[in-house]
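WARN retry 2 of 3 for item q-0093 after timeout on previous attempt; input resubmitted unchanged.
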Amino acid sequence: MTSPGVLAAIGNTPLVELTRLKPAGAARILVKLESANPTGSMKDRVARAMVEGAVAAGHLKPGDTVVEYTAGTTGISLALVCAALGFKAHFVFSDAFSPEKRLTMRAYGATVTDVASDNGRITERLIKAMIATAAELGLRPGHWYCDQLTNRDGEAGYHAFGEELWAQSGARVDAFVQAVGTAHSIHGSAHALRAHNPRLEVIAVEPAESAVLSGGQPGAHSIDGIGIGFVPPLWRRADVDAIATVPTAEAQAMARRLAREEGIFAGTSTGANLVAALAVARRLGEGATVATIAVDSGLRYLSTELFRA
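OK item q-0093 returned
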């Protein structure tokens, strides 16, 4: 049965069990393939939730422009939603992120304004400059600044994700591992999973080079979409049991291994998720289930250092 419009295709993504990367004696490791969403990313879920929330609240009217700062993935998803619902889109981006993302946002009809990085590095200064630029653009008439970092509609976009994961896992998830950017996905998914398993262990992942959630100093790294260099406004430390720090090089190496050994083609943040998930699986051992997310498709990173090795 078909449903009207591309937004109906968001969600109900496949769940797969790792077969070759899992060490002997480790827990079962499940990976939700969010690359099966229309734009190839989990961010389709949050983009739809935020835009539909703005429409319901009267913040967005026909012909208006959605404004956001983005490392590209959220921008692509917002561009999809805007195209499907008839809104314009204007995003603030940077050369620190893959050029495929810029081209994809433009393909959906978005306008892209760039903020230059320091030699392609993702830093706190860059992110804050992008945010300030987006906020200024959002003051224009007929423009709505999505402001994903403080937009509380975003978390609800992942409640369905958690419900899907629980059902597909056979009603068994002992630990959930997810990298943190805005914190929408880890909190929204865990909220739904904990309704089924109150003892669920939730592990956040951040770049080792910028481990601010762990109390460290901000630094430069190359894991797109996470590690913004400061604590996200909607982050709730009390809802997370542990924080894993993963170096960029290890995340990249794991993303390559995922493609070559499991046939899962994804980006660096997914690699970081798997580095952490494997550690949790070793600790919990056989009989337990660890779940994580393949955040997006590796197709977005073909021109970057990730797949040049």
